[in-house]
Amino acid sequence: MSVLTWRNLTRIGRAGAAACIALLGILNSISYAEAKDVSVGVLYLDSQGYYAGVRSGIQQAAAQSGVSARVLDSNSGGDLSRESSFIDSMIASKVSAIVVSATSVDGSVRAIRAASRAGIPVVCYNTCINQRGVDQYVYAYVVGDAYAFGQKLGESAADYLLKAGVTHPRIGILNCEFLEVCTQRRKGFEEALKRRIPDAQIVANQEGTILDKAISTAQAMLAAQPGINVLVGESGGATLGATKAVEKSGRAGSVVVFGCDMTADIANELASGTVLKGIVDVSGVEVGKLAFAQAMDAAQGKKLTSKIVPATITAYTSPSAANAWRKAHADGLP
Q1: Which of 35, 70, 137, 238 makes an SS bond possible with 174, Cβ 3.0 to 4.6 Å?
Q2: Which family, according to the similarity comment (predicted)?
Q3: Is the domain of 177 the same as that of 324?
Q4: Structural domain contains residue 25
Q5: What is the pLDDT of residue 290?
Q6: How confident is the model at residue 224, as a pLDDT?
Q7: Is the separation of the CB atoms in 281 and 244 below 8 Å?
């Protein structure tokens, strides 16, 4: 073989190697581009302020993620059949992940199980399915511990009542206990309050989480139980409804309200300092960002050391705290 022929073959070999490297780079680029196209199905439990905050957090996180993220969202309105239909449609669409606030601890298992078995990771936030279902079918659960949340509310109420010299409070609760998270909030509230004020007594506990129903239920509760001097709302709608009911009933000054889930309207009531005396909250925006981050990790096949992703629980117990919240949330989203 001549030197010239050898050199030519060497050049050809080097050119071929370079072409292979270039081709691999193209293939890697294609693969990376495909990996950057992500679709996420998101389901909100209802349309109240907290969930508007979650939606904003998810949208912000998607915009800042550096990937082409398509968010397909809807609102179940607490309806199990709507939830199931949405999740089934997301399975058919082969989304990269599903983010959901579950309607029922047991009733929501079927749809979430179907998504998991279809290879679509599910991220819960705020509410989820039963523990066995979480263990088997859920990738991550973003939540502020509901019992600890309730305890913080009970501590806030005890601080105010003891300072006001109220040692025998009679309490009416507006609940959302068709959801397990609300039951746990109430249990935590009771434990913390009665540990500090043993003679505290819950004399009424009725469902009322949608604003209009919460107002009418609270008004009827105050009329039927005139000894009530504290109302507690287990949700944002319940809290605002309880506050409005006290005002409409002419009981401001004799009945105070404590509640859950900050909104712009609730911040305004707390800032006035008249009826509403304390709120405990987990930021919807923060939860939305955390949930989207978990969905991205799931889509990339990352492994978690724990399924529970804790969200920060914050108490607001003064007009100044409410004003600080309003300044930090100028868009009104919690």
Answers
A1: 238
A2: Belongs to the bacterial solute-binding protein 2 family.
A3: yes
A4: no
A5: 98
A6: 97
A7: no
